[in-house]
Amino acid sequence: MSSMIFSTVRGIGSLLKLEASKSPSDETEGDIKVLSVAWNQDWSGFMVGTNRGFDVYNCSPVKKSFSRDAFKTGFKIAEMLFLSNIFALVGNGYNHHEYPRNKVVIWDDLRNSRFCELAFKSEVIAVKMRREHVAVVLNKNVYVYSFNGLKIHCLLETVMNPKGLCCVSQDDTKAVLACPGRHQGQVQVHDLMRPNKVRFIKAHDSDIACMSLTLDGSLLATASTKGTLIRIFNTLDGTLLQEFRRGMERVEIYSVAISSNHKWVAVSSEKGTLHVFRLRPDILSSPKSINNASSVSLLRGILPKYSYDSERSIAQFSLPVSTKFIVGFGPENTVLLVGIDGSFRSCRFDGEGGQMVELENKDFFTLPQTDDQMVVM
Q1: What residues have CB less than 8 Å from 281, skipping those under 6 apart?
Q2: Domain limits at 271?
Q3: Mainly resides where (predicted)?
Q4: Looking at the domain assignment, is residue 90 inside a domain?
């Protein structure tokens, strides 16, 4: 990807120029507002889409790498590819015809130019990237493109997906994509190296609200719109491996993450709670699910019934209820959080359980800018 050539790639059908949504005020005026926050693929950095442009942050230690506001528009989606110069941008559609809500711009910041454009007939809900692929999520479809030549790799059908749920693995030898299936509570798992290989998992009775893959794509975590249970599946055969109980009351799950060492799961919710759960040490070595239900029953879409209490969290932390936080993992039993309120937090937990200790709580907009040169991927 170091030898990038500007190109334009259109989605299925010709580009439909959507009429930009009208805003009562100019989005680029007034105070800076956060429109989106997103971790990169390994939590080494995060990107913030604002009403003026976007900011890029590094987490080792947390600092602002650079800010870009020359676009004179806001970005409702801003995703970065590791700590590189490659970004995926989708405009808010209010005040800039070059960045409407139905177009993904892959931006090469090193060259200060567009690598490519991907345009569609409907609004783009989410974008996910890996080194070889970019996945664009629409309401009922996921378009997967290969970075090599920007050709459509595959087109997936989903149920209505207003949250833009989709996650991709980052292992060079194992390309896994997970997104909602074609029925309520179902997840479809694809091997992108073998496009015809797909597995459908009946994960929940209710709609899927949140999902996450491990970096190597071996484990999948899901939560439903009920928000009471978190389930962990083996992506290879669809087996349910472990189940966690967040609580008894219905709640919206904001974010879920599985640590890269396969030891912990972190979950944030609208209750202002951060929970950390412990994965079994043998979670990938055991071929059985937690209630000995065979993977065959799961593959057929039959959710096994449970006759015992699900496992509880081993550590908790209280967060502002009014703010949406997305979670990631840092080194040495630390959880990283980025809030839509402009805050960055880090907390450490004891592997034996109990309350977490807050290590950092910073307003990321006030961090000094370093103007770091990003790595070319």
Answers
A1: 263
A2: 163-367
A3: membrane
A4: yes
